[in-house]
Amino acid sequence: MKALLDRKTVLIAVIAVLVALVTLVFVSAFGSSGPVTGVANAVARPLKAWASSVARTFEGIYGSIYKYEKLLEDYQDVLKELAALKETAGEAAELEAEVKRLYLLLDLSEKNSGHVYAPALIVTPSSSNWSSSFTINIGSDNSEIVAGNGVVTEYGALIGKVSDVGANQSTVVTILDTTFSAAVNIGDSGNSATAKGDFTLMHRGLLKLDHIEGEYPVLPGDTIVTSGYGGVYPPGLVIGEVVEVFNHPTGIGQYATIRPMLPLDTVLYVNVITAFDVAEQ
């Protein structure tokens, strides 16, 4: 805005001021009358008009500059207030999410009164093509977890098991990993089987259902839950549902693929089962 005060305008203002000063000198020296004073007044009159016009222009420009700067200050204040409101809204959203997580954990604990849970946050997903794992933000210094503990989602679905415990962080292998295996039941049919990770299926987000035993057919959509056999996991933890059923290449028996209840890469918060009532088995 201040660039409007170019050199030409400033020059005219300077000339006007000089003429006014000259006029004052002549008036002082020769009085208010006389040919010299008349000439000076005649010359000064239009320049005085220009000076007044320039002065008004200056006033208008400076007034516009002041208004612009005031608007800019008000705009900056509004931006600060908006940032503060966004921060407050973000804190409120985080608080709401935390309340929801606590509610889900309470609900999970009420449904499984014999289970003891350690809430955790996934801080690092798996970055390997050869395994499926993630890192959680609890370890031996801030929890009671140990290697082999089952890990479930906020809704109680089995997602993996603790494989390595550090001081403040631990590694969890997911149910897709080739090292995972669990004794399971197939829906309400009474059929039993083994759910286990498979390298080929892992990259498709699936795991394998094998060693199927029972008199009822396995069908797509059947729910797969832990049986509790062997005492590694408590019974009743949902792993996923059957996607497809196949005959073994040997011609003896069947196997199937299982889709986890949730895409594993969408899970952020988990609960580690640090203890459970063995009597439930």
Characteristic terms for this protein:
12 strands, 281 residues
Verbal overview:
The N terminus is likely disordered. It contains three helices and twelve strands. Strand 3 and strand 4 form a beta hairpin. Helix 1 runs antiparallel to helix 2. It has 281 residues and is an alpha+beta fold. The strands form two sheets. Strands 1-2-5-4-3-12 form a six-stranded antiparallel barrel. Strands 6-7-8-11-10-9 form a six-stranded antiparallel β-barrel. 37% of the residues lie in helices and 28% in strands. The two termini are 81 Å apart. The longest helix is centred in the N-terminal third of the chain and has 77 residues.
Report the total helices: 3
Low-confidence stretches: 1-5
Rg, Cα atoms, Å: 41 Å
Say how many strands there are.
12
Helices and strands, in N-to-C order?
Answer: HHEEEEEEEHEEEEE
- The portion of residues forming beta strands comes to 25-35%
Biggest sheet descriptor: 6 strands, antiparallel, barrel
Structural class of the secondary elements? alpha+beta
